[in-house]
Every structure is written in structure tokens, then in C-alpha cells.
Design goal:
Length: 46
């Protein structure tokens, strides 16, 4: 099973700012996929 979480949730888990996480991902050449509205609703239930 694949778990999808938002950039905001990733940053929260890592205890860093979302912008800082974006910069780190950019430096590592990691591309993001966008999640759907349904995925966001599911994430909020976690």
C-alpha cells in the first residue's frame, strides 16, 4: 500500500518549514507529485 502525504505534512513530521523542505528536495533533485483532494481528506484523518 502506498501512502500519500502532503508536503505540509512531510514538513510537520520532520519539524521543519515547508519552504525549507522544498529547498532540500530541490537540492536533491527530487520531484514531487501532487495529491488529490481525496488524498488530502484521507490524510487529515490520520
Amino acid at each position: 500500500m502506498t501512502r500519500l502525504i502532503s508536503l505540509r505534512k512531510d514538513a510537520e513530521i520532520m519539524r521543519i518549514d515547508a519552504e525549507e523542505l522544498l529547498q532540500i528536495l530541490d537540492l536533491l533533485n527530487i520531484e514531487l507529485s501532487y495529491i488529490s483532494s481525496e488524498d488530502i481528506e484521507q490524510e487529515q484523518k490520520w
